[in-house]
Design brief:
By secondary structure, this protein is of the alpha/beta class. It contains nine helices and 16 strands.
Length: 301
Amino acid sequence: MKWIELSVEADREAVEAISELFAKYGYNAGVAIEESIIPDEDEEDKYELDLDRPVMVSTWLPNDERAEEVRELIAQHLWHLGQMRYISPLQVTISDEEDWANAWKEHYHVLRVGRHIVIRPSWREYTAEPGDVSIELDPGMAFGTGLHPTTRLCLAALEDYVTAGMSVLDLGTGSGILAIAAAKLGAATVLAIDNDPVAVKSANENAALNGVVASQIRIAEGTLAAAGNVQFDLVVANIIAKVIIELAHDLAAALLPDGTLIVSGIIEDKADSVALALAAAGLHNRERRHEGDWVALVAQR
């Protein structure tokens, strides 16, 4: 199958709006957010994020009879968004799936997050340091590489809140990066859920890549309802503010008493609305973490 890749460079403040637009029209709601990086001068094959440069946001369309209509619709929406924030002209690339699956790999590098977590793309070499929690990752067409601030915020929070033996729910698992991190940080059981079959496939492959055994982590296709009536010590959801607000009561219900909720995918000007929704659902807001214009909230039942 041939695919059309649609990409724009944009100010960080515009990334959430573009992501929602791309998720609405892109294949399986797939969106990739690529940060600019700076090579580490001291260590080869390590990089830091360049927070002063624009962010690349991409989605994909199957090259079928509706592709041109959808592309034009996206371009119109981007034009309106571009009246408020910098957004580059829409870039359009047509490629075979296999070609696309290999081309983006050059953009991903070994990345340190929090105190000990290291995200290593499966095709990159890496020498572990004492105390490292290494996560090997091949994101494929699923979102969640560790590069986006919301993913990094969640990883750092998991490092602080996951304790040995706890049960964890990862809602909207994407590549499985947060579920794998929870398992490697000591969670006894992890349920990872995503409504995108491409993400479920990717998450299963990455769990196997990291040697996370099936008795420790289970990956399922579906929504929060797929968790049934089971409650968890910790729930993490890296999605978007609107969905978190809509699911606030269900997320609270999925927690055991004194359980911890970590949510991100929240642009700063929507953080108060999310916090209010969590409070209305009976959750105590414990902590607010920032990276650039992005926010993660930690709450407790």
